Amino acid sequence: MPEYQDFVFITGRAELDAAPLVLLHGSGMHERNLIGLADKVGPDRPYLALRGAVEWEEGFAFFRRNPDRTLDYIDLFNETHHLADFLARALENGLLRRPPVLLGFSNGGIMAASVLLHRPETAAGAILLRPLSPAPATDFPDLRGHRVLILAGERDERRAPGDVVLVRDQIEESGAGVTTRLSPAGHGLDESEPDFIKSWLAENFPPA
Predict the structure, then answer these.
(1) Considering all CA atoms of the chain, what is the largest pairwise distance in Å, rounded to the nearest integer?
(2) How does pLDDT run across 42-96, given as a tens digit for each residue?
(3) Structural domain of residue 98, as residue ranges?
(4) How far, CA to CA in Å, does 158 sit from each of 8, 68, 154, 183, 188?
(5) Structurally, how many domains does the chain consist of?
(6) Do the strands 177-183 and 3-4 form a parallel or antiparallel pair, or are they unpaired?
């Protein structure tokens, strides 16, 4: 399992010529947790599954939370640039052959949104699963040309109803093409969501 610039990662289907998925897991998870999802939604595209650089609970995370579970915005900012530097070097050295689609769940979804906010040149788009805004009072940069899918659960016990509205509105106002879907699920994915993600990817990032 390679390690590069403090990130442990797994690659798959690297020989395929399509926009790759960069998999960003949730809190307390690890680099293998989203590979099964990538197999369902993108069997025709490469993936790069990353382990968060922060040790957290029984696993890892991409940034820290405060003791009261609110986001540690300073750590999120710093770790965003840490990740974006990795992505930029991966694009330079061929580990990523094309700008990727960031597929992030929960903690990883917030991180993916933060990359769009601070370093959008390192990604072509994002799939945000159960995200929060990485900066509620900040305008996103010009994201015209980026495509973003946001998936929320209507029974998500970890999110308020307005959370998805806020991050959706921020990204839409940046000019990105945004698709939002609310599923009858909690914080975990509904069984219908992988097929929806697969269709969205085929339409927005078709293989070459």
Answers:
(1) 46
(2) 999 999 999 999 999 899 999 999 999 899 999 999 999 999 999 999 999 999 9
(3) 3-204
(4) 28, 13, 11, 15, 10
(5) 1
(6) unpaired
The DSSP 8-state label assigned to residue 51 in this structure reads P
Which among 124, 132, 62, 61 is positioned nearest to 91, based on CA atoms? 124
How far apart are alpha carbons 16 and 97 in whole angstroms?
10
CA distances from 127 to 21, 34, 39, 75 (A): 9, 12, 15, 22
Question: What percent of the chain shows pLDDT beyond 70?
Answer: 98
Q: Are 54 and 60 in contact (CB under 8 A)?
A: yes
Residue 19 tokens read as 């926009």
Interhelix angle for 107-118 vs 73-93, to 10°?
70
Q: What is the pTM of this model?
A: 0.97
From the list 71, 34, 68, the residue with the least C-alpha distance to 54 is 71
Residue 207: what pLDDT? 86
Tell me, what's the pLDDT at 208?
A: 75
The three-state secondary structure class of 155 is: coil
CATH number at residue 147: 3.40.50.1820
pLDDT tens per residue, range 146-171: 999 999 999 999 999 999 999 999 99
* Residue 49, token pair as written in the block: 């599954």
| 162 phi and psi angles, rounded to 5 deg | -80, -10
